[in-house]
Amino acid sequence: MNDEKRTTLRLPEDLHRWLADQARAAHRSVNAEIVHRLEGERAAAVADGESPSR
């Protein structure tokens, strides 16, 4: 990713804990896990015609 944007994200503690566990199991950082999941959701939405691709 060459054009990265920094953002602050507030999560409930239990959701962060779950996400950190998922990231650890996949050998990714929490940030990489969030990006991975969002990219998957975006691809699914585009495939379903729910949103324009960018």
Quick recap:
The chain has 54 residues and is an all-alpha fold.
Task: Tell me the layout of helices and strands.
Blueprint: H1 13-25, H2 30-47
Helix pairs in contact: 1-2
Structure characterization notes:
The model has no long low-confidence stretch (mean pLDDT 92). Helix 1 crosses helix 2 (30-47). The protein is 57% helix and 0% strand. It contains 2 helices and no strands. It is mostly helical.
Query: Average pLDDT value?
Result: 92
Largest sheet: none
Query: Beta-sheet strand percentage?
Result: under 5%
Number of helices: 2
H and E order: HH
Q: What is the number of strand segments? A: 0
General form: globular
Q: Please report the distance between the alpha carbons of the first and last residues.
A: 14 Å
What are the key terms here?
single chain; 54 residues; mainly alpha; 2 helices; globular
